[in-house]
Amino acid sequence: MSYFDELAYQFIDGEWRSGSGSWDIVDFNPYNGEKLSSITVATVEEIDQAYRAAERAQREWGATNPYTRRLVFERALRIIDEREDELGAAIAAEVGGTLAKVGFELHLVREFLREAMQLALRPEGRILPSPIDGKENRLYRLPVGVVGVISPFNFPFLLSIKSVAPALALGNAVVLKPHQNTPICGGGLVAKLFEEAGLPAGLLNVVVTDIAEIGDALIEHPVPKTISFTGSEKVGRHVATVAAANFKHSVLELGGNSALVVLDDADIDYAVDAAVFSRFVHQGQVCMAANRVLVDRAVEREFTEKFVAKVASLKVGDPTDPGTHIGPLINEGQAEAIAALVDRAVADGASALLHGETRGTLVAPSVLGGLPEDSPLLTQEIFGPVVLLIPFDGDDEAVRITNATPYGLSGAVHTGDIERGVRFAKRIDTGMIHINDGTVHDEPIVPFGGEKSSGVGRLNGEAMVEAFTTTKWISIQHGRSQFPF
Predict the structure, then answer these.
(1) Cα angle vertex 56, ends 10, 40, to 5°?
(2) Which of 145, 196, 262, 458 lies at a CB distance of 3.0 to 4.6 Å from 447, suitable for a disulfide?
(3) How remote is the C-alpha of 329 from its chain's centroid?
(4) Position 1 pLDDT exceeds 70
């Protein structure tokens, strides 16, 4: 029995069971169209059951010694080591990830589980002075209680674990809703991992469903105190609005329109390698991907020739083939949208330095130059293998163009002068930017998040403590207070 048969269920209060909705979410392999699983959707009633189970289980878990909580994550790490091939095959099948992408995802999952072990011990209390004689002020860091997690399809195992593991480590319970295109890798596998690692029943619940079935019940429910959402800016705005209306804290990791900037003193060959990876890793379905590559006109010709040649050499096809660089997009609708986007850009005046063809869910890379300044492509996120080449004259113009977008997630600048790069980076309105490297990075202890429409809040390291715990003030009067009446 494969994971896709074994885990095609809801996981509520420690039990695998069918949803009671009237329709199914059908899970397909995006490369060959094979049906992987069919899952009957969870209803509003089952959302309530999941949250109530989490609420009950959390009380004891929150009081559990953090050294004991750590043991769950140690066991989870061992399970991943033992099942690496099986897990990798599942990710390749459901997500269409190449072998390199699968390896990268599993590596980061391990790193985030290791960090979760440390997070269990991270919350610290404080004692603050008081102007009132005999009074002691204590500040306690406590779990928020129950966290709702909504994860995306592009790195489903990783981006579910990234919020689920620290929330659990810090003493919370979780209800996880994976993306409809990746219900197994983003949901079932996560539940199975922690179930086998010995996590007590009820602490992690997975509900596979759709807004068409449950509306906003996952966010509006009275139990969760924090909602962690990773996904598109459009949906993120809705999540933030509903959460705020219900007095819930939300952590939003949203889309991007990152730029990789090549200054006139950059190592051109190295910059080409960084730019190709930054745009085309996982078919460009990465929030941090370099949608735009900005090149100083002094080196534009050399860079463009080398860049286009390298992009043209990328192999498109079966993600399980070790030689494949670019696998399928998540579904045919997304592939058709990307193809239409390129055709529209060319019709509006862009030059196709490389115009990739589309076959089903396989979309070959496109490189577009000469875009009109009012092109909507310059300011939007492109979730696919399309890159925009944009020339500039000098650092000031590069800063202006880079910042001319509603997004501000990641970025990179290439230069032979590190301090010049730092000065440039400080001027960019983005949450993260890298000097002489790619735009796609995530490290467990470094705050991860964006500015502007790329999100609210941060994840990773100490930011996880901020996101998934709350501060309680307890004062003690050791003497006797004087009251005015």
Answers:
(1) 10
(2) 458
(3) 17
(4) no
Tokens 């490290």: give the residue: 443
* Helices H / strands E in the chain, number of each: 16, 24
| Catalytic site positions | 253, 287
Which one-letter amino acid corresponds to residue 176?
L
Please name the residues in contact with 89: beta carbons below 8 A apart, sequence gap of 6 or more. Answer: none
Residue 217 to residues 17, 85, 148, 302, 404, Cα–Cα distance (Å): 20, 36, 11, 54, 36
What letter would DSSP give residue 155? S
pLDDT at 140: 97
Confirm whether pTM is higher than 0.85: yes
Place of tokens 């061992």: 78
Compute the CA torsion angle 461, 463, 469, 475 (nearest 10 deg). 110
CA atoms of 359 and 117, how far apart (whole Å): 44
Cβ atoms 260, 292 nearer than 8 A = yes
What are the DSSP calls for 81-115, one per residue? HHTHHHHHHHHHHHH---HHHHHHHHHHHHHHHHH
Q: Tens of pLDDT along 356-402?
A: 999 999 999 999 999 999 999 999 999 999 999 999 999 999 999 99
Q: What tokens were used for 184?
A: 């197994």
Spatial distance between the Cα atoms of 165 and 414, rounded to a whole number of angstroms? 35
Give the mean pLDDT of the chain: 97
* Cα 321 to Cα 318: distance, rounded to the nearest angstrom: 6
The candidate with the shortest Cα–Cα distance to 299, out of 204, 190, 380, 389, is 389
- Return d(Cα 325, Cα 281) in angstroms, integer: 8
Residue with tokens 């300044």: 373
Question: Which residue reads 């498109």 in tokens?
Answer: 316
Assign residue 223 a region: left if phi > 0, alpha if psi is -120 to 50, beta otherwise? alpha
Q: What is the pLDDT of residue 482?
A: 87
User: Would you give the DSSP letter of residue 457?
Assistant: S
Contacts of residue 189, Cβ cutoff 8 Å, sequence gap at least 6: 3, 7, 87, 90, 157
Per-residue pLDDT of 336-357, as tens digits, reads 999 999 999 999 999 999 999 9
Helices 99-119 and 156-169 cross at an angle (nearest 10°) of 10
396 SS3 class? helix
Q: Contact 229/197 with Cβ under 8 angstroms?
A: no
